[in-house]
Structure prediction request, 858 residues.
Amino acid sequence: MNNYLQAIILYAIKKFQGERSIYAIYHMLQGKKSSQTIQDAHLFGLTNIFGTIPRFTRQQLNQNIEWFLKHDFIKLMDKTDAYEISVQGEKMLVSYLENNPFPTYLNGWKYQNITPVFWGRLNLLIQTISHIVHNERRFYPIQQNPKIQHFVKEFLHTNRQDRVLIATHLFEELISLLERQSDLKRDILILKLTGVNRIGHTFEQIAKRKDVEEEYVRFMFLDSLHQMLADTEMSTDYPLLATLIYDWKRSGNPHLTQSTQTTLRYIQEGKNMWEIAEIRRLKVNTIEDHLVEIVLSDNSFPIADYVSIEDESKIAAAIKELGTKKLKAIKQMVDNKQISFFQIRLVLAKLGDG
Amino acid sequence: MMNIEAVLKEKFGFDEFRPGQKEVIESLMSGRHTLGMLPTGSGKSLCYQLPAYLINKTVLIVSPLLSLMQDQADQLKMSGEKSVLTLNSFLTLNQKRSAFERLHSYRFIFLSPEMLSLEGVIKSLKSIDIGLFVIDEAHCISQWGYDFRPDYLNLGEVRRELNDPLTLALTATATIEVRRDIVGKLNLGQVNETVSSVDRENIGILVERMFSYDEKQSRVLELVRKFTGSGIIYFSSKKVAEAVTRFLQENGVDSVNYYHGGMEQEQRMLIQQQFISGQLKIICATSAFGMGVNKSDVRYVIHFHMPSTMEAYLQEIGRAGRDRKQSVAVLLYSDGDEGLPMHLMEQQLPTDMQIEGVCSFLNDSQKILENLTPSEKEQLSLTFSLNEIQLRFFTQLIKGTNNPLHQVAEMKEYCHKRKAANQGKLHKFLQWIDAQDCRRLGIMDYFAEKQQEVNPICCDYCGMDADKMVDVWPEVKVDHVNSYSTWKKELAFILLKKETGNEK
Ligand SMILES: [Zn+2]
Prediction:
């Protein structure tokens, strides 16, 4: 195997078991917010890598697929553009990941939206505080996004305490969080930081310095951020960093898309799918996608309004017997014209990963 | 009237003006429309910033590039000015609304030309008292300029709608024809021109003839070993910029990195700031680098590839020596190098076939270009192999429901003219490279200027070369490089104030 990107792609191929075309990998890594991709992330246990390479291109995908084929790492399935990992490929993947362990805290599906925001805020807050503490008033903001800049300004406006005190708290929380992380991860995070008299390093520069691959550095950086996010969410020990994601946590179910959140509000008000479609001037299909997304994010969400308990158990039985997640096969198996693809998708969503 | 020197001292902390600034400001304060041509890095923006404190009305600044605009606004804010608004398409609806409500309260309003074509913007601007209307990079209004932007063409009309406000057109490089065009297109009528010399006396100008890519590459290595301090190496190709970066690194030049438009925004910003702070010494860049980069101690600019016009060349070498200390520009030329800019220029405009194809497609399908969905646009680009710039050409020129077939001839003629103009410029620049004559005189001649006095450190024709440049090289302060010890110490270094100091 040549590089970490290949390992990630091969890992996804393995997980898809030939049931999806390679373009599903493309959408997965890009984090496409379509119901298909969101469902696939859950069905095939790929929520970790969901949306972790937004810059991923089709061309990159195709080149790597070609390379895998040439080296017999994958086999073409009957379907076009669907591949399965070969025994050879499986061996290579295992040994590669032994030397370059898979990031364990990665949770793209959950943190995809907040990660760049959290990093942007943390990055700019540290730069700002660093300059203030060292009595340097003039500096060029390393984060250009006006929303990030606005947030940090507001943050400093609301937290009127002594700046040196804020700096100390920030320092202590970061030390405590990073102490739980691997050497490589914390070095990467620290090297990325910009402060007084030092500008952060690019991923490429860090890779060269640490003598590892750039893509690996990027994944370890994400892993570091996701671990920080998880720790900050879980515990009350990081009050300062928690304020950086306060608005995200408050916005309700943070991993639902904006539009799905609106649909959820209407459902909670007691509206049915058709009414919601009417009010929102959307197709009923779209509302169905939202529902599946809601159930995926919370499989205790009641689905009895949309599929009877009886039908639910029929569908579940078919899924179990077939051992597949293919909608067509499941529908054939239950052999009941009354049962829709939507209902099957709901039950699949409810059964969750696994 | 308040003393302008006093304002200069009080608001900007300077004791004296740089060449050209005072003339422009005085001309504006006497109520005359002004065209100011000041070389890059000579403090152009002070020409409208200072009057703002004397006029006490809103100053409206139109700027072609978002990054440039953001940069100028940031610099104003950094110097303590709070009343700055940047109007761009990134603002949310709410932010826009609240900005418009308080429009009159801003001292500086920056906006991009496309914002002016949005409904309601002009109307809101009409309701406030505009003391000065500034057009930055005004040469963009001229089709014969080297950086024509169709968006700029509406600015004349905008001026009329805003009731002919006092206007300042600023540019760094414009030939006489372009200056005439600026005044005409903006409908300025009577205008006071303040033209500073394009000559940058403290930059030695060297052209070196090369015979291969490899020779160029080794020459770059020699030069960066010879020259101390910060330098920019310009390329027309992202790939070559990266390749030469690697070559330099492999040959022991550590402090070098590349910069181009294909990089992610965050990585680009890091490289740019590393360079400005001195953490990074050398940048291998495409022309995407430099706009708004304020670094005074760039000692040298090397061109690995030639730019396509004299104006672009001056703009790029003008990033050296803003501290007015001795600096140098080295252009490496080998035969056939003009192929690349020629090709790039071709790509900027559609061919006759593409014009015919797109227009008859629109006519046959009865579709309106503005209303096409992104995927329809992608399909259109695929069918007629249009690049982004070419597609934008069509969306800008084909407006509304006019039968596009009636515009074919007009568009073709327009493209021919612009292509001819571009080729003319490239040709003139090549002539300058080939000329057996003083480089500096050649540049001044291009802008119809006469040289005042002979420059002892002039150009390759006048006897300078890279080795002799080293003899007159100014002293370069060697920055202290922070070495990384442990992650904890590093974090403490960033966030905690040192109690006991190894601080000087
Ligand atoms: Zn000369």
Observations:
- The domain at 203-341+425-471 of chain B is CATH 3.40.50.300 (Rossmann fold).
